[in-house]
Amino acid sequence: MRCTASPERAVEDAVLVHSISRKRHAFPPLPHTSQERLAASLNDRPFENLVISESELSAAKEKNKTVLYLAYGSNLCAETFREKRGIRPLSQVNVLVPELRLTFDLPGFPYAEPCFANTAHRDPTQPETGTSDYHKDRWHKGMVGCVYEVSMADYAHIIATEGGGASYKDIVVTCYVLPEADTVPDSPSTQAFKAHTLYAPARGPAEGGHARPDRSYAQPSARYLKLITDGADELALPREYKEYLHGIRPYTITTKMQEVGKILFTATWMPIVLLIMSLQKSLQDKRGRSPKWLSAITAVMFTIIWTTYDVFWKPVFGDGERTIYGDDGESMTNTTWPPAPQT
């Protein structure tokens, strides 16, 4: 079963990616999460209905109770997680999660941010299949990520900024500390511990979602991929995994019609997206959750965005999810991949 995120997260990510400053900020290094805290996590249980009451928050603060949160994608980047999202992690540890895998199938915004990182369940005993196009699906060793130790209040904020809890449930997954090495082990040998992360089944338009028909089709933008690779470098993830991330081919506009389509599509829809974002921030409750009616409007809005893209924008202006190449196999802007056929 795949996981997917709510339309609110697509709004958040689309705006967040374009708000990241090109100027890199320095963040103080975090300590390694203690073995005692990792061992204590083995008794963790999911939060029912993603509800963390005020009394639970107060009690957690008094007892210095923390949550171990599994991050991946752009949340690996300190500038995203610690500055833009405002999370103040207490410690961190790099991990391998054999029961999950990284995907790039969360729909974003055509022509600008076609898709975002996502996660899906994985059976380590079964061989994995996937397309080799664009190198997105070439990793077969389970999810590599970072587990942050955060306060209960910060975890409530993470729930809010990942879509206000809409369509999600909190799950607890088994993680293994990654040893300092260039490669990721096929089978982890370190001691297991538990971490929380957010999960939701993929939903198509008939179920109120906007999952794409072919979830391996879209390419992430170069801007979004850079957040992930920057985070992998900051965290000193294994070289093998960083090479995989750096090898993913980003979405590139290669035709004049795509350029025109991007300008017109953004001018048409981005003001509405920004309005929804503004409403979410102004109407959220104390824990950052959007009203249910606003979540419903956001879901409908993204369904309309992608429906109009499929019916009108893509046929007229060209692909807003995947790079277009010429008949000879070369990019229309003479990029270097794929190489011209040998004669």
From TrEMBL:
Give the EC number: 4.3.2.9
Residues at the catalytic site: 162 (proton acceptor)
Q: Keyword set for this entry?
A: Lyase, Membrane, Transmembrane, Transmembrane helix
Q: Highest taxon of the source?
A: Eukaryota
Which spans are transmembrane here? 260-279, 291-309
**One Gene Ontology molecular-function label:** gamma-glutamylcyclotransferase activity
Record's keyword annotation contains Transmembrane:
yes
Query: Looking at the keywords, is Transmembrane present?
Result: yes
Q: Where does substrate bind?
A: 69-74, 224
PANTHER family for this protein: GAMMA-GLUTAMYLCYCLOTRANSFERASE (PTHR12935:SF0)
> What is the name of this protein?
gamma-glutamylcyclotransferase
**Where does this protein come from, organism-wise?**
Sporormia fimetaria CBS 119925
